[in-house]
Amino acid sequence: MNFSYLRRAFGLLLVLLSLNAWSQTELKNKIVDFTTYLPIESASIYIKNTTVGTISNSDGKFVLLVPREFENDTLIISSIGYKSFKTAISDFDESEDIFLEEDIASLDEVILVADPRPTTGNGIVEKAIERLGKNLPEMPYLQKGFLRHKERNKKEYKWLIESALTLYDSSYASGARENLRINVDENRKSYDLRDVDSLFAYAAYLKNRTNNRTLRARNLRRDTIQTSSLVKAIKWNDSRINGLENLFKGKLNLIRNANMRQSLFGDNMLERHQFELDTILVDDGRKLYKIRISEGSEFVGLGTRNVYNEGFEAKGWLYIYYDNYAFKKIEYELVAASEVQKRRSKSLFGTQTNHKLVLTYKEYNDKMYPNYIYYETPKLVQIGDRSSDREKKEEEVGFDKDEQFYYTIQEILFTEIIQDPEMIDEALGKEWSDDIFSPRPYNKEFWKNYNVLLESEEEEKLIYDLSKRASLFKQ
């Protein structure tokens, strides 16, 4: 009797210990500019000397799950151009907003230092590219991350999917196409109503399969197309426009793939871009060059297969650490510049900015690892009248320009870095797939302990609307 009681008590103790090991502390708050009282977006929130962290959303709000093993550590909140906020996790206070004060260094003070270092924007960027081999990881690693992929027209959301990812990279020295892999581990949300209006994707898909160049989307009727066929076309279109493989292995992974052939930040970088030193900022106590990106003598092109993605000029900003020339953040836009691309962009999308990219990096063990990726681009789904050089005599029946294309947005937050060789080998021994469409059962326990990007208030409302429409559509 006593032995049975002791066995049950021991079993209960093991369960409690297990729950305690997996339990986490939830930290949440809002980050605000001390002077303007405006929310600070994309601030970094992380545990000191770890890779556990998140970023703030457009409302300045965040939520971070802190594993029990770090509950006695220090939380750091930093944003470029501000003084960092630091507190013991055990002392974290959710009752009041967190205010960050501006922190800017003197540009003259830095330039006048007697040091044989570049003093122009072009020279600083060239030096930073030259030092990528030292600043980026030189050993294989895994990263765990969270993906939120959204697509919407000018009226409403059409698709949302949230996934947990694993990224494998063998090192910067190796080619990305052969030595970089992505796996979708779990799915959290998936609402997809794009098959309602993706006729252009279907026409392009048929052209690619049949080589019929006379086929036009305007000649197709949705009620004559099987949904399964349309879904195949959507998947095919996604893979060439904004698939995960393109995002990680293509030209827009500007820093990681600077050593690939015809890369945007490669040998002829200064023919496509010019860089101007703007000022010196501070990030968590370290000086940063802030450098403006502007157009070069040649247009920028992405060379996307079967898609006209040429004739752009680059704009944006680079943030590069002063001490080691490591890239901290990139804000990069491609704007229509050639006459052909200007007409095309105006006619199809009503905007001249076709690609928006934000890349941020975190330092860990003296190397820079991807921290956050934001990528936005328009993608055609209905074509309508493409003419831009004449006025339409009358409106096309059944065509709404507000539904002509989707804004597609991919956000990826990396939450963990794994360098253990045995864990890497074990992961590589499994089957990998970057297919975010593959159905996966919802794993409640997994997501309960996984850090994600906090949705903004606007996103919450739009996503709630999408979920309701998806439920009605299924009925």
Summary of the model, kept short:
This protein has 475 residues and is of the alpha+beta class. It has 13 helices and 17 strands. The strands form three sheets. Strands 10-9-8-17-16-15-14-13-12-11 form a ten-stranded antiparallel beta sheet, sandwiched between helices. A four-stranded antiparallel beta sheet has the order 3-2-5-6, with no helix packed on it.
- How would you state the average pLDDT, rounded? 86
Uncertain segments: 14-21, 386-394
Structural Rg = 24 Å
Number of domains: 2
Shape: globular
Supply the number of helical segments. 13
User: How would you sum up the major sheet?
Assistant: 10 strands, antiparallel
Lateral strand order in the biggest sheet: 10-9-8-17-16-15-14-13-12-11
According to DSSP, the number of beta strands is: 17
Q: What series of H and E elements makes up the topology?
A: HEEEEEEEHHHEEHEHHHHEEEEHEEEHHH
Structural class: alpha+beta
Note the quaternary state here.
single chain
DSSP strand content: 25-35%
- Please bin the fraction of helical residues: 25-40%
Cα(first) to Cα(last) distance is 56 Å
